[in-house]
Amino acid sequence: MGGYEDIFRASTDDPEAFWLRAAQAIDWHVAPTRALDGSRPPFYRWFPDGELNVCHNALDRHVDAGRGEQAALIYDSPVSGTQRTYTYAELRDEVARFAGVLADLGVGRGDRVVIYLPMVPEAAVAMLACARIGAVHSVVFGGFAPKELAVRIDDATPSVIVSASCGIEGKRVIEYKPLLDKAIELATHKPSRTVILQRPQATAAMGENDVDWAEAMASATPADCVPVRATDPLYILYTSGTTGKPKGVVRDGGGYAVALRWTMPNVYDVDTGETIFTASDVGWVVGHSDIVYAPPLAGATTVLYEGKPVGTPDAGQFWRVAAEHRVKSMFTAPTAFRAIKKEDPKGELLAQYDLSHLQYLFLAGERLDPETHRWASDLLGIPVIDHWWQTETGWPIVANPAGIELLEIKPGSPTKPLPGWDVQVLDESGRPVEAGTDGAIVVKLPMPPGSLPTLWNDDERFVDSYMSEFDGYYLTGDGGRLDEDGYVFVMGRTDDVINVAGHRLSTGGMEEVLSSHPDVAECAVIGVADPMKGQVPRGFVVLKAGVDRDEEQLRSELVQLVRDQVGAVASLKDVAVVSALPKTRSGKILRKTMRGIADGVDEPVPSTIDDAAVLDMLRPVLRRE
Ligand code: COA
Ligand code: AMP
């Protein structure tokens, strides 16, 4: 097979041959004869004449090959005290049945289904059921508020929504149904039906459009896999951009299946019959790819974990799961490890478990700080692998390809570009910078299979957001550098996107909410460094002239407003009332300068500043002096 360098070179020398070869690992209804349609840049289409069904590849083909009794999905939920293993045959049957439920409700090929579910196996069942009948799912993370859900409903215009009576956050039961009802009330588009999974922790009152999951399943006729074009959308996944309107990242089925099937053995070193535990949420891309789709595409076993890394019942749950289910590769966000470290700094809970099967820890979702890297490596004594990806890319851009060969680990770097990713660093004028110099991280087009072909119903925003800054390149939105060995260092976002506990959020979206308060004249939200969550948002508001309010009360109103409108996941807990915001002479708020001061990094103050005295006034507030 060759080492990393050979494989990477093969992918750049002849990308089409490389990916057509990779496509042979997929069971096609009509095998593709061409890899790439590049006739309409920057809109590239992979495997344009191929036809397949992703659910067939994830489930039926393994049952047909005699592996029906192998575990496909292990649901492990300490918060509800539940564990259940689904074999491939059981999961196929469950998915086929739910596909029948959707079909009975009139969902057909190309129709959208919004899924708003906690981390229960039914989330994976619903997603795979959509794939089975060629419907397009759009999963919305449970921590988002009704308004965020409503925005996604209006954009995706689903015919059906699948949800549950409740989710469980530590010891708290969060009722989902009132949130869903509120979202439907707020949305202009109304789904024809909603399917509700009743959970015993809190049952929901059902309305006339609500269908009970269990009742519908009991009478459903299983539906078969429908072959679809490789270029048809498999799902839409909304992600935060610079404004309050999220971007509907489209994922096509063919390229995604090929890319994910490739990553399991080559990146994660997980083969058929082995187990991967990805502690994320199905609401994020990592959950889509490495909990729901990639493991079954490779015939592996996936662990779907409902709970936090700490709290209920303790900070040893990840070790318990890894030991009990003989996990080979584990994957989570660095923040989860910082949370564990805080509770159990010496890792004493680890000693209770036999982790002899665990060979790798993969981390992504935010920058992996060297200290967390060191702590996790020392504790586990196995390779701790940072890797970098985005909702848009669908799978890692840069990683240490453990399944091919383990390259030298340089703390602070997710290592090197994976095959298909031509990663470059450009300066503001679009020229490549020298090794060791920071710039905008971009990917030369075309990107490999599995990356986004466009944004849902918005080709124009796709071009504006990603393709227009540097002609012929995809703008990742991350800044960083390459070193002389070709290692990539990702230093952080260059736009108004922040990463809070591995959750991607828009400061622009939070600013829109703060500005909507009747007493607020203008505001800024910046992401500042946080020892646990990596980053947290901080808000700064200037009040309208003549407003005389109790500041404490106003602050709590503003915090509550963001919680109500964006969701608890926004984690905006700190809003300061200030008399002015620092701006350039053209009126642009100096958010980067504010962030630098708050983080204690000396950012040069731009010469275009309008009034330097404003910054002097803000400095102690930003530094919390
Ligand atoms: N449904 C409802 N509410 C949710 C939610 C969900 N699915 N997810 C988070 N929330 C709520 C939390 O309960 C919390 O509410 P609170 O302010 O009332 O306490 C709030 O949103 C913030 O959540 P979070 O940022 O997750 O903080 P936390 O203190 O609850 O947990 C961590 C911190 C680090 C333990 C947790 O964020 C974690 O495990 N992160 C890993 C993230 C991850 O896997 N990311 C995916 C990329 S790989
Ligand atoms: P999301 O689209 O939610 O997966 O978030 C993607 C963003 O998370 C990226 O653009 C980065 O800013 C950040 N990110 C993800 N993985 C890493 C990593 N390994 N190192 C640094 N940043 C990361």
Topology, pairings included?
Elements (H helix, E strand, L loop, with lengths): L3 H10 L1 H8 L13 E5 L2 E4 L4 E2 L1 H14 L3 E7 L4 E6 H17 L7 E5 L4 H13 L2 E4 L6 H11 L3 E5 L1 E4 L2 E4 L1 H10 L6 E5 L12 E3 H6 L9 E2 L3 E7 L7 E6 H14 L8 E4 L6 H13 L3 E5 L11 H8 L4 E4 L1 H10 L16 E4 L6 H11 L3 E3 L11 E2 L16 E2 L5 E4 L12 E6 L14 H9 L5 E10 L5 E6 L3 E4 L2 E4 H9 L4 E11 L3 E10 L7 H15 L8 E4 L13 H9 L12 H11 L3
Parallel strand pairs: 4-17, 6-7, 6-8, 8-11, 11-12, 16-17, 16-18, 18-19, 19-20, 30-31
Antiparallel strand pairs: 1-2, 3-13, 4-5, 9-10, 14-15, 21-22, 23-24, 24-25, 25-26, 27-28, 29-30
Bound molecules: coenzyme A and adenosine monophosphate.
How would you describe what is shown here?
Helix 3 packs parallel to helix 10 (285-297), helix 9 (253-266) packs across helix 10 (285-297) and helix 12 crosses helix 13 (370-380). The model has no long low-confidence stretch (mean pLDDT 96). Helix content is 32%, strand content 24%. The chain has a seven-stranded mixed beta sheet, with helices on both faces. Strands 7-6-8-11-12 form a five-stranded parallel beta sheet, with helices on both faces. The protein is globular, with a radius of gyration of 24 Å. The N and C termini lie far apart (58 Å). The protein has 18 helices and 31 strands. Among the domains are: 87-226, Rossmann fold (3-Layer(aba) Sandwich); 498-623, ANL, C-terminal domain (GMP Synthetase, Chain A, domain 3, 2-Layer Sandwich), CATH 3.30.300.30. With 625 residues, it is an alpha/beta fold. The longest helix has 17 residues, at 88-104. Adenosine monophosphate binds next to strand 25 and strand 26. Adenosine monophosphate is lined by residues 239, 284-285, 364-368, 386-391, 414, 477-478, 490, 493, 499, 504.
